[in-house]
Design a protein that fits this description.
The chain has 326 residues and is an alpha/beta fold. The protein has twelve helices and eleven strands. A five-stranded mixed beta sheet has the order 6-7-5-8-11, with helices on one face. The protein has a four-stranded antiparallel beta sheet with strand order 1-2-3-4, with no helix packed on it. Strands 9-10 form a two-stranded antiparallel ribbon. It is globular, with a radius of gyration of 26 Å. The two termini are 45 Å apart. About 17% of the residues have low confidence.
Length: 326
């Protein structure tokens, strides 16, 4: 069997499903394999029809475990601590994430920028972020020439550390600068003089202006009192503050999702229309115009909880990848 034939054969293989049994025949050799479940940490082995046991790499190795989709919501990440320098703009960040806006996160170190990217995707929890996010993006990534030459890509978050991106991606509409860069003691400054010769006995914090750079204005009224309360409680229990912050953001997302869930329920077939003797009824398609018209009944309740331009919030969010994915 030639390489071209083998490639054609491999292209017809079914996608690996945890727990399923596969019978594969590459290059005139037949292998039988059971795809392990993601939670199974044991290495799998395959046995050919020639009774030769060959150590193999799990076909599911490249597939993230089911719980990986929950990681951006910050299960092991303190969202409030990571985003503390931009807490005063948290309402704008929430809307940027909800609308799937393109955002560049610029930080001095990969650890800071990757944590910030993951924390931002968790702002709209329990709604999952369905866009493309790169916790650590470099000039060596294959998409870099495209991102540099073309307009900003919707529903994309890039975490970068290279100052060159300040120029290369200056056309992106939203930039988050976060984190401080520390120069080790004794490292030479730009003038060529070692900091130790200047009498410095501690690391030098290099200037990195933190904040959100955007022309976007919040569509909903910002809760300044909540932010002031968080910053004022800086010396309180960190876990309690994180839980308080998460509950606040989750309530905002859930409040926004209520009219959408109510409309989606109306699209479902009635129970009396479902019968084992009849074909399964189809679900009606989501009609954006119909939803916006019916939204008027929910506006008084939404406005009482948070003032703002709710129709515009829904007009933009229902076209975004997060609601489409939902």
């Amino acid at each position: 069997m030639g390489i071209a034939t083998a490639c054609q054969d491999i292209a017809t293989w079914p996608p690996p499903t945890p727990g399923s049994a596969l019978r594969l025949s590459p290059l005139d050799r037949t292998f039988e394999r059971t795809v392990p479940f993601a939670r199974d940490a044991r290495l799998t082995r395959c046995r050919s029809l020639e009774s030769v046991t060959i150590p193999s790499i799990s076909l599911a190795a490249a597939i993230p475990p089911p719980q990986a989709a929950d990681m951006p919501s910050g299960q092991a990440l303190s969202i409030m601590d990571v985003l503390r320098p931009v807490l005063t703009n948290i309402q704008v960040l929430w809307e940027l994430m909800l609308f799937g806006e393109p955002v560049v996160v610029s930080s001095p170190t990969p650890a800071v920028c990757s944590s910030a990217v993951l924390a931002m995707t968790g702002l709209i929890a329990p709604l999952h972020y369905h866009g493309d996010f790169r916790p650590y993006f470099t000039i060596y990534d294959v998409e870099f020439p495209e991102y540099k030459a073309n307009a900003a890509v919707p529903a994309t978050i890039l975490g970068v550390t290279n100052p060159y991106f300040n120029t290369a991606l200056s056309h992106w509409p939203h930039i988050v600068r976060i984190g401080q860069q520390v120069r080790p003691r004794g490292r030479r400054s730009e003038s060529g003089v070692s900091s130790s010769k200047l009498g410095s006995t501690s690391p030098t914090i290099m200037r990195h202006k933190q904040g959100l750079i955007t022309s976007a204005k919040p569509l909903l009224k910002e809760d300044h009192s909540f932010v002031r309360e968080l910053l004022a409680d800086d010396k309180c229990d960190r876990v309690a503050l994180e839980q308080k912050f998460r509950r606040h953001m989750e309530r905002l997302t859930q409040m926004m999702m209520v009219p959408l869930e109510q409309y989606a329920m109306r699209l479902m077939p009635l129970r009396r229309a479902i019968s084992v003797l009849e074909p399964v009824p189809m679900i009606d398609e989501f009609n954006a115009k119909s939803f916006i018209v019916g939204l008027q009944a929910s506006l008084p309740g939404l406005t009482r909880q948070r003032e703002g331009n709710w129709p515009q919030v829904y007009s933009r969010s229902i076209k975004a990848v997060n609601i489409i994915g939902w």
